[in-house]
Each structure stands twice: as C-alpha cells, then as structure tokens.
Amino acid sequence: MADIVIPSPLSGHRAKCKLLVLGSISSHIEILLDQFRSLNIEHVSPFSLSRQEISRRAVLAVHEVHLLARMRLWFFSRKPDAGFVLSDFPATLLQAKVFDEWMESRDEAINAVVLGESPRGDLVDYYCALGLVTKVCVPSSL
After folding, report:
1. How far apart are the C-alpha atoms of 18 and 108, rounded to whole Å?
2. Beta-sheet pairing, 2-5 with 112-115
C-alpha cells in the first residue's frame, strides 16, 4: 500500500489528480480534501449532486440506475482530464466497474483510492487488486 503524503503547500502538479475515497471521511481525509479545495480540485459525491438537485426542486430517485445516471452526467460534463476527489461513489462493486468503464472511455485513470472509515471490503479488495489503495499521511505541521 503506497502513501499519499500531504505536503504543505501542495505543488501544482497535483491539479489533475483523480482520487476515490471509500468509506466515511475521517479527519485525515478531511485535511486532504481541504488541501485539494485550495487547488480548486472538485470534490464530488452523489449526496452533493442530490443537494444541487434539491435546490433546483428536481425530483430525486435513489435507485441505483438513477444514481449511475446522475454520476454519469457529472462525469461526462466535466472538463477532460480535470482533477477530482470522489467520495461515496462508487458504493458497490457494480458501480466501481461501471466507473472504470467511464474512465477508460476517456483514456483516464484513477491516481489513488484512499480508505476512509469502514469501507466496503469488496471495494477495498477490488482496488487493492488494481494496486490503487493508498493511505494518507498528514505531516504534524498541518
């Protein structure tokens, strides 16, 4: 398992970084997200997209097909090669495989998968097999 060390300040080459967060967001991951926000790297989750739809008074559906449709719309409407931190998605092995197909269709790749608190074991195993699982190391100076 590789480490992501959070430098202070983060260097510009991370602006196109693509990360997945599996499980609940811990304090270490929150620090990571704050650092990426300072670089204007988008943090996306199905919950945040749903909140946007609520503010537009859209009808929400929680079925997996609708969730995949919502996430697909976000994915293909963003600028090609733009960096992002994605949390709460993929939440199932099916979603992970569909997301991988989307990434492949744009010739993109996830840089790392960060484990939060209580991630799903099948997702951890899937991304470990791909060599993408990493841990976050936060310097004590932050």
Report:
1. 9
2. unpaired
Q: Which CATH number describes the domain made up of 2-137?
A: 3.40.50.300
Residue 81 burial (10 A CB sphere; 0-12, 13-18, 19+): exposed
pTM comes to: 0.72
The pLDDT tens digits of the residues spanning 78-124 come to 987 788 989 889 989 999 999 999 999 999 999 989 888 888 999 99
**Distances from the Cα of 122 to the Cα of 77, 94, 97, 115, 118, angstroms:** 29, 11, 12, 13, 12
90 vs 42: CA distance, rounded Å: 16
Query: Which residue, 34, 52, 51, is CA-closest to 43?
Result: 34
* Greatest pairwise CA separation for the chain in angstroms: 45
Residues ≥6 apart with Cβ < 8 Å to 27 = none
Split at pLDDT 50, 70, 90, the class of 126 is: very high
Question: Domain spans of the chain?
Answer: 2-137
pLDDT digit string, tens, across residues 87-100: 889 989 999 999 99
- Residue 82, CB half-sphere, CA atoms under 13 Å: how many? 15
- Beta strand 112-115 pairing with 42-44: unpaired
